[in-house]
Structures are given as C-alpha cells and as structure tokens.
Amino acid sequence: MTSSDPKPSSAGLPRTAVPTGIVDPVASARAELKAALAAIEIKGNVPRRVEQASQRGIRRARAFAGRNPIGAAAAVLGVAAAVGGAVWLIARAVSR
C-alpha cells in the first residue's frame, strides 16, 4: 500500500472525498489537503484522461459494432471517405 492508496477504513470513499467524523483540526486539514491534491492529480493528468477516454470510445465502438455490424461498416467507410477527402484537399492546396 502506498501513501496515495486509500486506507482500508475509507474503502467506500473516493480518493477526492474527505472522510466525515474527523474532530482534530490538524487531521481534518491533512485530509482536506490530501483530497485536494488527489483532485488536482486526477484533473491535471491529461495523458491518463486521454487514455481512459480512448478506452471508453473503443468499448462503445465495439459494442455498437456488435449490435449493428452494417452500421459500423458504414461508419468506417464514411470516416475513411472524409479523411481521404481532407487529405486530397490539403494535397491539392499544397500543390498549387
């Protein structure tokens, strides 16, 4: 267990939550600081957020392809045509 892992007594709380029932002002301030730093880390860790978003997108695309394979194939063809058209337009603009 590292210092950033939640303690077993607070297993039901997210890392960014401050446990209730802390009477000691020093312990309360430490808990608030720990929660604030965890929230900053979660918000500021852009590569991790991009990774999680891409994994969610992949799961959604696979679920959609499982439910509607023809629609998924049409979507892939549409995206490929749009990217191909954009590349063609850029190449044409650069060549002139």
Mean pLDDT: 86
Please indicate the count of domains: 2
Rg from Cα: 24 Å
In percent, how much strand structure appears in the residues? under 5%
Count the DSSP helices: 3
Helical fraction equals: over 70%
Q: What structural class is derived from the secondary structure elements?
A: mainly alpha
Instruction: Write the H/E string, N to C.
Output: HHH
* Count of extended strands: 0
- Categorize the overall geometry: elongated
Descriptive notes:
The structure is a single chain. The protein has 96 residues and is mostly helical. It folds into two domains: 8-44, no CATH class; 47-95. It is built from three helices and no strands. Mean pLDDT is 86; it is low at 1-6.
In short:
This protein has 3 helices and no strands. By secondary structure, the chain is mostly helical. Keywords: Membrane, Transmembrane, Transmembrane helix.
